[in-house]
């Protein structure tokens, strides 16, 4: 399938890997595909999403919130029920040593090596192929990947788009029209 990817679609998957690493994730999910699109304003997918008002930083914040990575919010919520995270950290570090609650350092190899696609991200790429075939295109471009992301609907990427107030059906129609 990757042999059908255009230069922009290949750059999109590379940018998705970079987004995954930037967020400290060990996988490439639908959210990373979306974030990558937003870093590529000269592509059909990036241009369309940005034109509809979805920005990269807002999408990153939505990904963090929806995936449970918003640690400040967690600390605030725990504080409301009487749990002091600083006190918990101090006790754990006293028992297990400094940094016991920190993420283990990733090796240089894992930081530079292959980052696997999640099942949903693979599904998005498969749906991108189906979209290309349905449109009678012999290539898969970034616009087809956006169509796959919209069609998949349940992944974090589509949830971020929907939460931002964008109409998925209207977005889909617009991308198909631009693809011809």
TrEMBL record:
Locate the Clp R domain: which residues? Answer: 2-180
Q: What is an example of a Pfam family matching this protein?
A: Clp_N
Q: Which InterPro entries match?
A: Clp_N_dom_sf, Clp_R_N, CLPT1/2
Q: State the protein's name.
A: ClpA/ClpB-like protein
Q: What is the lineage of its organism?
A: Bacteria, Bacillati, Actinomycetota, Actinomycetes, Streptosporangiales
Report keywords, A-Z: Repeat
């Amino acid at each position: 399938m990757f042999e059908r990817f255009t230069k922009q679609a290949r750059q999109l998957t590379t940018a998705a890997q970079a987004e995954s690493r930037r967020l400290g994730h060990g996988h490439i999910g639908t959210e990373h595909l979306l974030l990558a699109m937003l870093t590529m304003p000269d592509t059909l997918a990036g241009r369309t999403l940005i034109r509809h008002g979805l920005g990269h930083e807002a999408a990153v914040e939505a990904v963090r919130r929806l995936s449970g990575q918003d640690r400040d919010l967690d600390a605030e919520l725990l504080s409301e029920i009487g749990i002091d995270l600083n006190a918990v950290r101090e006790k754990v570090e006293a028992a297990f040593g400094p940094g016991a609650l920190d993420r283990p350092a990733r090796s240089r190899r894992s930081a530079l090596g292959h980052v696997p696609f999640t099942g949903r991200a693979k599904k998005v790429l498969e749906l991108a192929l189906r979209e290309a075939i349905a449109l009678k295109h012999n290539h898969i471009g970034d616009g087809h990947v956006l169509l796959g992301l919209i069609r998949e609907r349940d992944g974090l990427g589509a949830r971020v788009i929907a939460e931002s107030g964008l109409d998925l059906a209207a977005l889909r129609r617009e991308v198909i029209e631009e693809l011809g």
